[in-house]
Amino acid sequence: MRGETEEVAAAAGGEGGLTPTRKLVALAELLGVRTAFHSPGDISPVGVAANLAVDVSTPAFGYQESHTYNEATHEVFPGTPVVRDGYLTPSDAPGWGVDLDEREAAKHPPVKFLHESWAAGVRHPDGGLDAP
Description:
The chain is α/β, with parallel strands linked by helices. Helix content is 34%, strand content 12%. It is built from 5 helices and 5 strands. A 3-stranded parallel β-sheet has the order 1-2-3, covered by helices on one side. The chain has a two-stranded antiparallel ribbon with strand order 4-5. The longest helix has 14 residues, at 18-31. The protein is globular, with a radius of gyration of 16 Å. 21% of the residues are buried.
């Protein structure tokens, strides 16, 4: 793998959680490959906070993609990471620093956006792809 790849593009939620992600990052450290954590709008603030926890714990850190969440997301998930001056900073709060306000969540019922409608047609309920 050395010399054949420049980065490991990953997301803690996509790799099966924090432990498998940390194992993947340990391999990147060993091989001198940088990390590039993915954080599009369909990753929750908890997922971004998990990515940040890995980012700050590895010398293999390369870069962290980010997403600007809307106000409703900040209301439902107090502690949502915010980009300031081009940087995401982990929270000082316990755990990953993101909480869930269930009362606020009840005010915002889920809706299907175009991506979710598409994904529902190609993925099983467990997230596995439906092969053509």
